[in-house]
Amino acid sequence: MRFIDLEVKSFQAIAAARVEFGPGLNVLYGPNDLGKSTLVTALRAALLVPAKSTDGDPFVPWFGDLVPRVTLTLEDDEGRFWRVTKEFGANGGLAELRTSKDGQQFSLEAKAREVDERLRGLLAWGIPGLGGKRGSRGVPDSFLVNALLAGQTDVESIFTSTLDDDPTDSGKVRLTRALAALAQDPLFKQVLDAAQAEVDAFFTSTGRKRSGARARFTIVGDRVKALQDELAQLTAELQQSASTESTVKALRLTAEAAHAREVEALGVVEAARRGVEQSRSRLAAEEKVQQTRASLSRIDEVLARGQALAAELTRLEAAAKTDEAEKARVEAMAVTAAEAVRAAEDALQRAQSEEGARARELKRATLASRLAALSATAARLGAQREKAMAAADRRRALATAEAEHERLSKELAGLGGQLETAKQNAELARLILDYGRWREAERGSAQAAKAREELAALQLKAQALAGEALLKEQAVGKATQALELRREKLPTAAALAQLVALEGDLKLAEARIGGGLTVAVRPRDELRLHVELDDEAPTDEVARAEKERVFDAERKLALTIGQMVEIEVTTGSKEDRRTRDALAKRWRAESSEAFSRAEVSSVAALRALHAELEREAEALERERAAIARLKAESTSAAQRAELVERGLSSATSAEELKRRRDRIPEAQLEVLQRIFETLSPDWEADAEGQQSAAKKTLEALAERTTRLRAALAAADERRKAAQPAKDELSQEAFAALELELSTCAAEQKSVAAGLEALEAEQGAEVKTAQRALDERRQEAQLAARAQVVASQQLEVTRAALNEQRGQAAALKAEAERLDRPAAARALQAAEATLAPLLVTPVVTPAQLEEAERLLAASHAQTVDADAEYHKAEGALSKVGGPQVRERVRALEEALAIARAREAEVELDAESWRLLKDTLREAENSESGHLGRALSAPVAEQFKELTAGRYGAVELGPGLSTASVTATGANIDGATVLGALSVGTRDQLASLLRVAIARQLKSALVLDDHLVHTDAARMGWFVEVLRKTALEAQVLVFTCRPLDYATPAQLEGPARRVLAGGSLCLVDLARTIEGWPQRSR
Amino acid sequence: MKAPEDDIVLKLLHTADWHLGRRFRAFSEEGGLRLSRARFEVLDRIFNEAERHQVDAVLCAGDLFDDPQPTREVADGLLAALKKHSRNTRPVFLLPGNHDPAQPDSVWFDARFRKQLPDEVHVVEQAKEYALVNGCVLWAVPCESKAGQLDPTLKIPRREPGDERVRVGLVHGSTYDARDAQTNFPIAKDAVIDRGLDYLAIGDTHGFRFIPPERKQPPTVYPGAPEATAFDEKDPGSVAVVFITRQRRAMVNQRRVAAWDWEEVTVGSISELRQLAARQDLKTRVLRLNVDLRLPAAELDEAERILEALAGTEARHGAVGVLDLKRHCLELDLSNVDTWSDALPSVLQATVAKLRTAAEDPQRRPAAQRALFHLFRATRKAG
Q1: What mean pLDDT do residues A663-676 have?
Q2: Mean pLDDT of A72-89
Q3: Predicted structure pTM score
Q4: What average pLDDT does this structure show over A923-951?
């Protein structure tokens, strides 16, 4: 801070005075009692005394009833100019504070009490605000007031004064900051500078992350963002790719399944074809069996016929013998008949004689006896014949019964075979059914296991979907709440629109002001420029000599050139500015709350936040829709699971499965499996049909068998009944009996005729004898014919015998040709061939046709599935496939690395900031002991001033002076301090003040503080002040100007600026206007 | 290669998976460029190998470009290599893979590219039989999309009875025992037998291997990428030189062509790090270095300097060819901070004390540790 000028009116002894100060050392000289100290008082009053306070009472002019008035212009550390004007008076006090950037155009900044509030804040001298808790009445005092603005009589007060006694710590803070640099260890400073440089590279002065294109955060952040964006795009592509691949997979599996079904159908067709072939083979085998069986039957028939023929032959041979015997007998009868003819001829001869009569009588008696005997024989033979006739009937019945019995037995035997076949068919059908059902149950069980897996998967899926939905729902709930919270922080759309409109108005108003302005600076010498363009942050730069520097601004341009001048250029009319200010004020009022609530700094940011919220709200809405879909999917999965579960309940239990398995003989398993594999899909119905048909056949056969058995039993009964009796005549014997009976009848007839002849002999013996002779001759002819018949019979019998023998020989030859064992073996072989064929089911051409129809349908499905698959596969050419997966993986890796790098940069930034802050913190706590920092330069100068007589000056933490060491002395420093001479103490006190002012770069007022200093030290001291004035303005009020300037320098105008502006001499005698009444 | 020379009827060089134009995003820009360039540089070594063995044909089994539409620079890079090694009598078969499928908008149908290809270079646009020397034949089947679920070898007809010619297959895809939907262009492991081939040249997997590993006759071989593309690849960096005899026996020789070795190293002590830095082979290494170290400040400083030397700076090349440094487990051991902080001015000691206190808070620990290390280095630098 430095003072620019001071204007005093009606202030104690001064009627009027105006002093313009130089930037360096100002020597304000004048004789005693001129009013030098009054000027100092006025200066203090302007800075420290409230205009309406009674503390201003002493300022009233000594002469006249006027209002004391002081105007002080100063420049603060930031280069801003302030002008304070005060008129003192408890009743009519007035205070105004004006400000200016250029020191020319001042604008009102504050009035009345606010003036002092502002000033005290500006000075930061440890003075409390007005009426504050620690505010005190009277002229305010503090360490810095004492140090920088001490009155003439307060020279030594600096020794006892301490910052710790200040009402507020603003002075201490200011000094601490200023002294910190002084206290800095070089190493510390280097570390701090390094940390600060790093922090500056990361953060702006307001602590925000730097966001320029080349900022470290931007580089790593942009990399992360670019990778994230790319990854998001690729992830979407990947999802599409996966979806397409999944569809193609499903279609491919469908096509493969269709192929498998077609192969299966083809297998069925082939099996059916084989079945048809096998059926043909079976029929052929059955035919073969029948043929071989017929052959065997024929052989057996031949053999039986052979046997029958042998019996017939035996019978014929016997008959031939009988015929021969008959022939012999007939021949004998013929002989007898011839003899009877001869006897009859004799009788005729005798009849024709007496002897004839006697002979006739004898003969009649003989004939009668013979007739009686013949009758008895005839009766016996008749009985025998009757018996024989009955036996013949029985024999015929037996033969019939035997034939019937044989036919029935054969039929029964045939029926047994059919029954066996039917049983086998029924058993096979049953086995197929059992096996098939077991297999079906087993397959059902396997499918049930799969279904259970599917059920578990479905239930899991349903749960997972439900869980996911719940999680998402919770997340959405939270997000909605968070969104609402954020929405509450934002103004409503209407309010935002209003704000936008207001901002537009403001911009319009600013645009109306803005017309653009350009300032060109062409410095003669290198100088520092402080530039503010419009509302941008001020910048500092060094403008090089003779180089033109051009600044462009829209509305306002403030330019501070070194310490010399501040120029502010503004555009627009006053009215426009007022409009703009009003709008700006309204803008600040309306926007600040909205901005602070939303933690943003612009309407654009608010609108962005609004838009972001809307987008997020829309995203949440989409998320809710996704949740609804998830829930629907979950429900669908659960319903499907329920369906599967219901299906499971009908699955066969393991026990049932085992029971079914146990019903199938182990040995049959393999055969059944082979058979089963060849069956059509409708095998069960087929097998059941076959089983049912076989059962019906079995029943019919059983019924027929029963009937046959009954018939057989009846035949057996008849056969038994027709069995010949023990005493039954043989056929031959019967024939003999017949012959004997006819012989007997003939003989009886012959004897009766003899008798008749004999009777006739009584009348006509001769006639009779003649008749008898005729009869005998007739009989002889008969006998001769009988002989012929017998011979013929014999011939017939012999012919039959010979024929039978021929037949027997032929049969024997045929029987020898027929190989019964071979025929039996052939039958056995044919049956063996047939047996395995019997277990194969009969496949009909209709069944084959059905299988072929199914194959064709299956093939059509395969073709369709293939077509659909190939069509879908085309979509694969449009997706990224594994390549996208690879790129996603690579990007994820790159993103992870970029994030790690970003984290590394964040950590680096945070660590540098932490280091810088910690260094500052440590520095602050370390520099709390301000005395350490300040004592070194003070001691150094004091040592120089006293030519090494005194050494270290010890200052307390609050800068109170504790001790001074005397070189070589054994006395403690406090004693030395107390023992110093008045002049030396004044010098030490002034050195302290100078040191403080230098550190604060603040104006220092010394009001005749060195009056007790000798000329030598004074010269040294003036040099110190001149050097000090290079950094801080020094105002010396003195009555001994020659201590500071040569007589020549003192000549001339009342105010003289020398040494390039660094020394300003002011003759107060010619500056201060006293009261007219006052005599000098 | 034990067969007498006159018994050999066909010599082949089989390579694949060049991935020209691949970008290595996980590495630094410079490292990534170096690796991208390496994919072109290896082409010289591949064709030199073909020359050395005087092979009858060069089979390139797919994924030669990383993308079906490579930049002009990438396409020209391949053209330059092909022109440089052009031998009229040695056909080169370029097979599109799933990365660079033969689609209408791909480089394979780009007239400019095709026009510049030397005459003996054949782009396999569709499944086709090619005649090779000595009556041998090549059946090549390209990928026509980036994804596919059909076995490409199914397009190769089975060997006809009585066909005694040497038959070689060239396809691109993944071998699996059972086909799976997620498998891209699945190739049955017994395809070489099923199709009656004497050698099946395939590409896709980046490491050299026989498929299945135990079956050497007739062979199905992945030569692998000639330069690796990732750390987890097993046995990359080779080509296969194949000699086939009259008796139709194929002899396969793995020949290394890579210039770069990919290696992952974890160092758990400063001495291990020093040993690593002393290695002479780092220039040709793509090194993933996991640093798991907790070191006192001085050693940490040394470690940082070593890591800087390995990685390089803007002004100086690093000792490692391409470095992927994982350093999040590198931290300062706070237990003996006093050994160096005692000598510091009091204000810096106070700073150290405050940072140590901050490091006790797990949240602030990483920043505090790093700050202490910055402080250590700054004082070292200043002092």
Answers
A1: 78
A2: 90
A3: 0.48
A4: 73
Annotate B95-109 with b (16+ C-beta within 10 A) or e (fewer): bbbbbbbbbeebbbe
| pLDDT tens digits, one per residue of A141-159 | 888 888 888 877 777 777 7
Which 3 state secondary structure label does DSSP give B372? helix
Q: For residue A185, which residues of chain B lie inside 8 Å, CB to CB?
A: 345, 347-348
Q: How much is the average pLDDT of B54-78?
A: 95
Contact A918 B148 (CB under 8 A): no
- B324 and B269 share one domain: yes
Asked if residue B309 and residue B198 are part of one domain, the reply reads no
Q: What does the pLDDT read at residue B259?
A: 95
Of A962, A1069, A1043, A836, give the one whose Cα is nearest residue A160: A962
Nearest CA in chain A to B98: A883
**Could you tell me the residue range of the domain that residue B360 belongs to?**
261-382
Q: What token pair was written down for A330?
A: 């007939």
* Pick from B26, B354, B367: CB nearest A894: B26
Q: In terms of domains, do B110 and B36 share one?
A: yes
Facing B370 at nearest CB: one of A249, A897, A911: A911
The class that CATH gives domain A1-23+30-141 is: alpha beta
pLDDT digits (tens, 9 = 90+) for B181-225: 456 788 988 999 999 999 999 999 999 999 999 988 899 999 999
Q: Structural domain tally of chain B?
A: 2
Single-letter amino acid, residue A1066: V
Among the candidates B256, B283, B310, a domain finishes at: B256
Task: Give the gap in angstroms from C-alpha B86 to the nearest C-alpha of chain A.
Answer: 31
Angle, CA A654 vertex, CA A652 and CA A658 arms, to 5°: 105
Closest CA to B170 of B120, B78, B242: B242
In terms of average pLDDT, the best of A169-178, A621-630, A1005-1014, B201-210 is: B201-210
Interchain proximity A185–B148, CB inside 8 Å: no
Distance from CA of A902 to the nearest CA of B (A): 12
Which 3-state string (H, E, C) describes A244-288?
HHHHHHHHHHHHHHHHHHHHHHHHHHHHHHHHHHHHHHHHHHHHH
Q: Are residues B216 and B289 in the same domain?
A: no
Residues A840/A271, Cβ–Cβ less than 8 Å? no
**Mutual angle of helices A982-1000 and A930-945, in 10-degree steps:** 130
Tell me which long-range contacts A519-524 makes (C-beta under 8 A, separation of at least 24).
Answer: A519/A550, A519/A551, A519/A553, A519/A557, A519/A559, A519/A567, A519/A569, A520/A548, A520/A549, A520/A550, A520/A551, A521/A548, A521/A549, A521/A550, A521/A551, A521/A559, A521/A561, A522/A546, A522/A547, A522/A548, A522/A549, A523/A547, A523/A549, A523/A561
Neighbouring-strand partners of residue A11: A14
Bridge partners, residue A9, by sequence: A16, A69
The partner residue sitting opposite A877, judged by closest CB among B103, B184, B344, is B103
DSSP code for A924 = H
Same domain assignment for residues B142 and B187: yes
- Tell which of B239, B256, B273 closes a domain: B256
The 10s digit of each residue's pLDDT in A943-996 is 777 777 777 777 766 677 766 776 667 777 777 777 778 788 888 888 888 888
Amino acid letter, residue A846: A
Residue of B nearest to A918 (CA): B351
Q: Would an 8 Å CB–CB cutoff place A890 in contact with chain B?
A: yes
As for the ipTM of the complex, it is: 0.86
Residues 156-185 of A with CB under 8 A from B: 184-185
A244 neighbourhood in chain B, CB within 8 Å: 147
**B309 in the same domain as B239:** no
Residues B283 and B199 in one domain: no
For residue A882, the model assigns a pLDDT of 77
- Compute the count of residue pairs across chains A and B with CB atoms less than 8 Å apart: 139
Residues B251 and B272 in one domain: no
The Cα-based distances of B339 to A66, B9, B334 in angstroms read: 74, 76, 10
